[in-house]
Hints:
single chain, Glutathione S-transferase Yfyf (Class Pi), Chain A, domain 2, 2 domains, 4-stranded mixed sheet, 4 strands
Amino acid sequence: MSAIPEFHLYAFWRSSATFRVRAALNLKGLKAHELFVNLEAGEHLRPDFLAINPLGGIPALVQAGQPPITQSLAILEFLEELQPEPPLLPRDLHGRARVRSLAAMLASDTHPLLTPRIKKYLATQAGMDDAAWRAWQVHWFGTGLAALEQRLAREPQTGRYCHGDTVTMADVVLASILAVMRVFKIPSQNTPTIDRIMASLDALEAFALADPFRQQGAPA
Length: 220
Ligand SMILES: N[C@@H](CCC(=O)N[C@@H](CS)C(=O)NCC(=O)O)C(=O)O
């Protein structure tokens, strides 16, 4: 049996994308030593971190002797191949496509609108104040979740979780978005299917351990 490699994870307590990796590591029984990158202090824009990810985004997963892996979805896929059990993708081709599609609705089309660099640009270049930023957050989180809710409510593959009764990458991404919404005290509205699934996910230790407020650097 091959030894499990040792990982370092560049992380920030309330980062949604980092939550995904934490939850996946927990689900697969893997561990990573976290290296705290303080986004509020701009540490992700320092030359040493930009050498790891020129986009200045966390997370990055590093295995000794290997190039860093950035992009949370790529990291989830890497972990899935490294440690296939328990699987975070269904066995069937169409199921895998559905899970990846659900995950991308939030990770690719929702979350990127809500990152600190977008806030910074809108504040400095477009004069957006805190109230307008909050309205922006409510709008784009709400738009993404409403679209996901429609699919989850009408598609027969939805089960206890986003896809059947087994936790998948779609659940990991969904929980990551809800985690950061909770940090910013933004409630999800009119999403009964998502609320039901989240109640099941919240009960799982792998997700509870990834909670932003349980991480290094979180406010007491
Ligand atoms: N698509 C990337 C997103 C990475 C990203 O934007 N991470 C946020 C934290 S959740 C970040 O580091 N933002 C820094 C910034 O916006 O300046 C992923 O999934 O890993």
